[in-house]
Each structure stands twice: as structure tokens, then as C-alpha cells.
Amino acid sequence: MxxxxxxxxxxxxxxxxxxxxxxxxxRETRDERPEFRSYYGRPxxxxxxxxxxxxAYLFTGGLSAGSALLAAGAxxxxxxxxxxxxxxxxxxxxxxxxxxxxxxxxxPERFHHMLRVAKPSSPMSVGTWILVAYGPGSGLAAAAxxxxxxxxxxxxxxxxxxxxxxxxxxxxxxxxPLAAYTAVLLSQSAVPAWHDARRxxxxxxxxxxxxxxxxxxxxxxxxxxxGPARRLGAIGAAAEVVTARLVEHRPGxxxxxxxxxxxxxxxxxxxxxxxxxxxxxxxxxxxxxxxxxxxxxALLxxxxxxxFGTFEAxxxxxxxxxxxxxxxxxxxxxADAGREAP
Length: 342
What we know:
Blueprint: E1 17-20, E2 35-38, H1 53-76, H2 80-105, H3 108-113, H4 123-146, H5 155-187, H6 192-196, H7 201-220, H8 227-248, H9 256-259, H10 261-281, H11 289-319, H12 322-340
Antiparallel strand pairs: 1-2
Helix pairs in contact: 1-2, 1-5, 1-7, 1-11, 2-4, 2-7, 4-5, 5-7, 7-8, 7-11, 8-10, 10-11
């Protein structure tokens, strides 16, 4: 993932893009949406070149972070089955996330090269170091869960078992920034849909991560021990749905990218699945294992579709010059009005 993706190709001002109405010489009316096109039909912004690995990376990273938090809580409250599911699920999602990131970078050594520097002003650099700080605790806690019973009484087994709780708590400490940093990474790009939603995306991603982790817990743990997962699922689903609606109902043109086209379809499906999963979570999931599993699958699928829909909204907003020019003109008009005011 490169922070330069989505950078402007050239001037996005009125000189670089033309607005056309339906009639020659016709004046633009309030109800008409002008058609914008750039010179030679080229987009004002360079569309992101990322493929499916990136939204999948966004999902698995959030799933890992939420699972680490859930596992730490289960460990402290004496729920071994939920603790095991959270630790193993979190580490498995971390491995998948790392693999997807390396696949997107193209060559494994590029991930290593990012560790040569620490740049606080770069979300990508900060996120890389968060991932590095989070990984050892997650891996050590998962290793303790996979330790064969025959080795638990040995000296290495005892040492690993004793280190499991501190390791799990270490992973949980870095889990919130791990869940949110990808939202910061997207919103600090020049992609209009992502940058315009920069105040909401971190809350959307953390709510989605919580819902996904809770879904995994309900899918793999008996209902009698999955109470914390159900509560986290209800809270995460509410945060995800409410924040998604806030993203869609901001003033201006840019929110249209989230409600139309492929992005709109993915996000509507996400909302339906998340709401259905949340409803089952607070009702039948506490009494029925099949219902709990179905609710967990719905929350997982809703979280994944939310990431893919957000990604598609960003791509769509770079392909239509209106998403760049209309907000820019609105800011210029507002500045002119401020200068003209007595």
C-alpha cells in the first residue's frame, strides 16, 4: 500500500475541468447536476491501483485486533473456550493480514524495508510499527493455546503458559490502534470519498472490527460462554451501522460515492447482514447454538462487505471529476463570500 496512490494528476481547478449542461449556452439551474469532464477524458485524480487484497487486508487486520481484545477479556474473566478462540482467531487473521499486505506490496522485502525508518508523520510507517508491536504478543498467546498437553508440564511449557497472559494483554493494548490505523491511512490520501469521511472512518473501522471479532466468537464458542462476544457484537454492530449512516448523510456531493453503484450495493448488503446479526445476537443467539453461529456469520460477512464497500466508494470517487471539482468550488465560493462580507 502506498500513500501516493490517489495523488492528484494535475490541477483540479476550474481551468482543468469543464462543466456542461444539457443545452448549448444554457444556464445551470439548482436542480441540474452538471456533467464534468477533464481534458482528454483523463481523471483529475489517479485511481487507486490496489486490488482485492487491500480491502481484505483491512478486514483481517480489524478482525485480528478485535479478537485480541475479546481474548484478553475472556482470559481475565475465566472463559477458556472464548479465550482460545480469540487468541487463535486473532493470530490466524494476523497471518492472513500480513500475507495480504505483502501480496499487495509485490515483494516480501518491501515489508522489511518499511522497518528501516520510523516516520511519525506517515500513517503507513506508524501502522507498520503498530503491526510489529502487536504481532509478538498475539503469536505468543496463540502458541500457548496450541501447546500439546504432553508438553505443558515441561519447563518450556510452563514458561510459555506463564507468558501467555502478559502476551495476550500486550496484544490487546495495541489492538485499538491496529483496528483504526488503516482508516487513518485511507483518509490521509487524496481520494475524495476517503478524505471527506476522515472524521468518521476510524469509528466505522473500529466498530466493524468489534462486530467481526464478536461474530467469530459466537461462531466458535458455545452460547453459555459467549456472553462477552454477544455484548461486543451488539455494541460493534450499532457503532458500525450508525457511523455508516453518518458517512452517507454528510452534506455535499461526495457522500454519493457511498450510496451509488457497486459501493452502494455492497454497503446496503453489509447493513442488512449486520442488523440481522445484531438482532439475533440480542435475542435467539443466547439460547441456540445454530442461531448463534448464524448471527456470527452475519456479523463477519457484514464487516467484510463494509470494508469492500468503503474501498469501492473511494475508487469510484476518483473516476468522476465532479467529486473533486464540486467540493473545491464550494470551498472557493465560501472563501469569497467571507471576504465580501462586511
